[in-house]
Structures are given as C-alpha cells and as structure tokens.
Amino acid sequence: MTGFDDPAFYGARWASVYDDRYGGLDPEPAVDFLAELAGRERALELAIGTGRIALPLARRGVVVEGVDASEAMVERLRAKPGGESIPVTIGDMAAVGVSGPFRLVYLVANTLFGLLSQARQAECFHNVAPVLEPDGVFVIECFVPDLTRFDRGQRVQTLAVTEDSATFELSRHDAGQQRVTTQVVTLDGDGVHLRPVALRYSWPGELDSMARQAGLRLADRYGGWDRRSFDSTSGQHISVYWRASRRPSSSPARGVHR
Ligand SMILES: C[S@@+](CC[C@H](N)C(=O)[O-])C[C@H]1O[C@@H](n2cnc3c(N)ncnc32)[C@H](O)[C@@H]1O
Fold first, then answer.
1. Would you tell me which CATH number, out of the four given (3.90.1570.10, 3.40.980.10, 3.40.50.150, 3.40.50.970), belongs to the domain 3-144+202-243?
2. Which pLDDT does position 245 carry in this prediction?
C-alpha cells in the first residue's frame, strides 16, 4: 500500500508538526464527556495519535489503551509524561485488532473519515461492536459536511502569513466519492513543505446506517462536547452508539439531543 491508502501515511507526514498545529486545542470538554461515560473502566481510543485526549483521560483514572497505524505518532505519545504506561497496538483502526471488552471506544477529530471508503468506515463499526461491553458505547466526533465550502470542486484558503512564511490549504472535492484531498502548504526560508490529507466524509444518517448494520444504535447526538443540542446549524456532531441488544433501562447519557 502506498500514499493515502497506507494507514501509516498520515502519521509519516504529520507527526513532526502535529502537536505544534493541534496541541493548542483544549482537550478538556472532550475529556469531561468521555470520562463520564467510561467511569474508571477500560476505554480504547482508535487513532490515539500523540495522546492529545488519551493522556488527560488517563489522568482522570480511566484505563486507556490505544490503536494507531503510525509509529511516528505513537513515539511522540511515548515521549510525554504518562505516555509510556498507555498500551498502544500498532495497526489499522478499521480492524480494531485488540481484545475487549471496553466500556468506551472512541474515535475523535474526524478521523473516522480518514478511512477512505464507505466500506472501510463500515468495517470499523463492524469491528468495534464486538469489543464493547454489553453496556458499552462507541463515541465519534465528526464534522457535518458543508459542500458550500467548495467552488466548482475546489477551495483555496490562507491559514497563516508571517514575516517569514505563508501557510495555505489547497483542496479538491469529489462529490461522487464524497472525498476531499488537501495539501496544507507552507512556504518558508527552508523551502516548500507539503502536508497532505485525504478524507471521505459521511453524512450523519449514513453513519447511523453503518452502525445499525454492525448491531449498534444511536443513543445520543450532540452538537459539541458540551452536550449542546444538535440541530441544522451544527458544524459537527458527537454521536454516541450503543449495542442494539442493550437493556433499554440503562442509559449512559442524559437523554436524546438530536
Ligand atoms: C488527526 S490525528 C488524531 C489523533 C488523536 N486522536 C487526536 O485527537 O489528537 C489522526 C490519527 O489517525 C491515525 N490514523 C490514520 N489512519 C489510520 C488507520 N487506518 N488506522 C489507525 N490509525 C490511523 C494517524 O496515525 C493519526 O495518529
């Protein structure tokens, strides 16, 4: 496998800059949400990366494990305080590849869309379901596709300009494949730096359908980690799925917010 089809590709290209770019995002709202669902039980982060969420979640007493395809990303996790004690399996998140049961499995930061076909995303749901405890939940954080971002299948956006550098994003959108291919380009005194990303977006209802086919049901959908309502203005969703066989009396969350 090469390029975007290689699960380790993202990490190979992004690991050296990932924490500089995204380390400033406040993980606490997500950690609050996930800690409440996990209690002090076992939780699995698919695509754990450099531990942006997993490390603060482990500090709350959750027993966190991870899966990631990229040794380069996981090396950064290992170098952080507490990183050595989080077990990480190097592998493909669509396969899951670790033994449960887990109270919580979670996949954040739109990373489900890094699986570049509906079949690959459905495979992920299919392999998450059997590692959940009977009362366990699968939580995903995804954006709601906004096709108005693209003009005739493309988009150019300037992200940062300084005295010595410029960073911009060049994207192509393939509506038929529901695929966006992007280069984040930085020009500076050292030359041109290319950070590629490809994703295959899915609509919320499409994700629910994949979940149903895997034996999971949507329990709650929020418009943010602070449990705000999900509505027509929401740019993202936090979706909580539980096993279809779950007893109706046991609710992990505070109600339905769709
Ligand atoms: C955007 S980062 C998210 C990291 C972390 N979850 C966070 O929120 O900061 C995406 C992560 O997904 C991993 N990844 C991408 N495709 C993968 C795959 N098919 N299987 C496992 N990990 C994958 C990358 O190596 C990278 O660590």
1. 3.40.50.150
2. 83
